[in-house]
Give the backbone structure.
Amino acid sequence: MPRGVCGRLASALRGARARPPAVAQRCVHASVSRPSPDQSERTREPPRAFDPALLEFLVCPLSKKPLRYEASTNELINEELGIAYPIIDGIPNMIPQAARMTHQNKKQEETGQH
């Protein structure tokens, strides 16, 4: 484009900035984080507990096998692979990179190498 056209287009675009529709303004306004009166109450609540009923639906993303809930460590355990998925605020983190190797699996590897 010739320079004159680019300059006119840029100035037209700058001048054409219209206000967003009212619906968009309300959505943005509603999504702004503001402390609510009951927010301080939420911070005092203990972390949410994992619902063991979810075990009926959850499987290991790697092996597709059922998982076991370990309340003492707050993790979902795949005994076959020897990995444990953490549960954070009642929500299982099923990302394989977030899983840790369990001690049981390390012991099996050590006995197999000797």
User: Anything to note?
Assistant: Residues 47 and 56 are 22 Å apart (CA to CA).
